[in-house]
TrEMBL record:
Coiled coil: 296-330
Superkingdom assignment: Bacteria
Protein name: Histidine kinase
Keywords for the protein's UniProt record, in alphabetical order: Coiled coil, Kinase, Membrane, TPR repeat, Transferase, Transmembrane, Transmembrane helix
GO molecular function: kinase activity
Pfam families hit by this protein: His_kinase (PF06580), TPR_1 (PF00515), TPR_8 (PF13181)
Domain Signal transduction histidine kinase internal region: 375-447
TPR repeats: 108-141
Ranges that cross the membrane: 338-358
Length: 575
């Protein structure tokens, strides 16, 4: 079964924006004591007015500590509003006014917020650095330390530091129990179930998902779709298919539309493993409907995203400048250092010009690749193949072979959808490519008389979901094996073999046809996929620098009259 958990089971981050202990905003007479309540009620305009008033007074009396606390509050408000660059600017000003020997707790909370900010930007290394700073300044076993530990564990998951993530999860759970914070403990158990899914330790996944569910029930909280889906997925892997399916259905009751997409696919896989093809068909139909709905929504957002792209880039650049400026000020730069900075900025400007030229080249390259995709899409969806498919369905229905027609329609619809979904991509995961080819061979097998057999074998050491190959690279060879290798054979056989190689992967496509077709026999390939096009595409892919692809076509069998053909594709991954 394919591994789909990575799409859905992201780690939950806990944004820290309140004072918690009361020290940051609760100083007697500082005017900031009401901020926590305003944040909790989302009364951001009133909070902004209060902060502005207190900051003005602090500046008037030159109260450095109150200036620092006011800027920290403004940073928290801006962070809640998603204004990340402005939030960071205020945090950096606040740090200048608060000294670690007097305000360690306040600085710890600021560093935690900066860690959350960089997590939102997916700059996880920088996020980790700030969370570690926050922990160093806050050794006390309090709620702030708990949230920092929980967030740090999530960052370790993102940076794939598995041992550190597990150690931090357990430390956070121990502290949550000590503080009797069952809500955060429940979230940590869900994240631990994510961790153990990544380790394929299904019993541990079940254990921690159930602990999370138990805690949430005790708190009167609604079910967590992610937790129930984790539990269902692990149970299915353990062979408890019916129980796992029950938990999938519970997860659907609380799931968002994006989560429903993944759950329906998991349901489809579970029902197929259970042999309930009709339920599997219903699940994949719902999956497709949700996916189409999401695709429509995403398309509508693309225009807005393109318009915001420049502004987003400017924000990130501004944040980088602020961080660099802060680092420079902390080190009290000399005049020589300022000169180095100026030279660096000039270098960045030159790099920016080079980047724009590179982007222009990529646009031109994409137009060229779009033409290739169009030609390959026409190959896979040629009218003759679709006409034969429809005739086969009509034949099965006429003979009242309901199960066979349902199975045929399932393979046909999945193949068409996979072709359409991946035709716009540069690369596709090997497991998706194998699924497409399997559906194609199954359909051709049902259509042929005499029929043929086929076998797909993947080496155990390969991880198909982590291997990406050029889109639509293998299909023309498989199609040719069907049309010319086993046609009118009577005992035809096609084999697809995927083997590991030190620097890439070896792919073999074998048939036991009546004769060998070679690179000099261009007419042997389908008329819409001549050998010239295949060779031209491989040459183009080799020039792009991501792959080195070598193709060899030879005799697959010593049997006279049935020499057959073997296509060997060696794909080396360059980067």
């Amino acid at each position: 079964m394919r591994n789909f958990y990575s799409f859905l089971f992201g780690t939950w981050f806990l944004l820290i924006v309140s004072s918690v202990s009361g020290k940051l905003y609760g100083q007697s007479g500082d005017g900031l004591a009401a901020l926590d309540s305003l944040f909790a009620k989302k009364q951001y305009e009133r909070a902004a007015t209060l902060l502005d008033s207190v900051l003005r007074k602090a500046i008037a009396v030159d109260d450095a500590a109150l200036i620092g606390r006011s800027h920290a509050g403004i940073g928290n408000l801006l962070l809640l509003q998603g204004k990340l660059d402005a939030a960071l600017e205020n945090y950096l000003i606040s740090i200048k006014h608060l000294h670690a020997d007097q305000y360690a707790g306040e600085l710890s909370r600021i560093y935690s917020n900066m860690g959350a900010l960089y997590s939102g930007l997916k700059q996880f290394q920088r996020s980790k650095d700030y969370f570690l700073k926050a922990l160093e300044l806050n050794p006390t076993e309090n709620a702030n330390r708990l949230k920092t530990l929980a967030n740090l564990a999530g960052v370790y998951m993102e940076t794939n530091e598995r041992a550190e993530a597990l150690q931090t999860f357990y430390a956070a759970i121990q502290l949550a129990r000590q503080l009797k914070n069952a809500s955060v403990e429940a979230i940590l158990y869900t994240n631990l179930s994510n961790y153990y899914i990544g380790e394929a330790q299904w019993a541990e996944t079940v254990k921690y998902a159930k602990q999370s569910i138990s805690l949430r029930k005790g708190l009167g909280q609604p079910p967590s779709a992610i937790t129930y889906n984790n539990l269902g997925y692990a149970l299915v892997q353990l062979g408890s298919l019916k129980e796992g399916i029950q938990y999938y259905h519970v997860a659907l009751q609380q799931a968002s539309i994006a989560e429903k997409k993944q759950i329906y696919y998991n349901l489809h896989q579970a029902y197929r493993a259970l042999g309930e093809e009709e339920e599997a068909w219903r699940a994949i139909a719902r999956y497709d409907a949700v996916k189409d709905s999401l695709a429509t929504s995403n398309y509508e957002q693309k225009v807005a995203e393109l318009e915001a792209k420049y502004q987003s880039a400017e924000k990130e650049r501004h944040i980088e400048q602020l961080a660099m400026q802060n680092a420079l000020q902390e080190k009290q730069l000399t005049q020589q250092t300022y000169l180095i900075v100026a030279i660096s900025l000039i270098a960045l400007l030159i790099a920016g010009i080079i980047y724009l030229r590179w982007k222009q080249h990529r646009v031109s390259d994409r137009l060229s690749k779009a033409e290739w995709r169009h030609r390959f899409l026409l190959v896979q969806l040629n009218p003759h193949f679709i006409f034969n498919a429809m005739q086969s369905v009509q034949h099965f229905i006429h003979k009242n072979e309901r199960d066979k027609s349902l199975t045929y329609l399932h393979s046909f619809s999945r193949l068409i959808r996979l072709v359409l979904e991946n035709s716009e991509e540069d690369a596709v995961s090997l497991d998706v490519e194998i699924e497409s080819l399997t559906h194609y061979l199954h359909l051709q097998q049902l259509n042929r008389n005499p029929s043929f057999s086929y076998h797909v074998q993947v080496a155990e050491e390969l991880e198909p979901d982590n291997i990406w190959i050029p889109t639509m690279l293998l299909q023309p060879f498989v199609e040719n094996a069907v049309n010319h290798g086993v046609e009118q054979h009577g005992d035809g056989r096609i084999e697809l073999l995927f083997e590991n190689n030190a620097k890439g992967i070896d792919i073999f496509i074998k048939d036991n046809g009546r004769q060998v077709w070679s690179t000099s026999q261009a007419g042997r390939l389908h008329k819409s996929m001549s050998m010239d096009i295949v060779k031209g595409r491989i040459e183009q892919l080799n020039k792009m620098g991501r792959y080195e692809i070598v193709m060899n076509i030879s005799q697959s069998s010593p049997v006279p009259g049935y020499e057959g053909t073997i296509v060997h594709l060696y794909i080396q991954f360059l980067k």
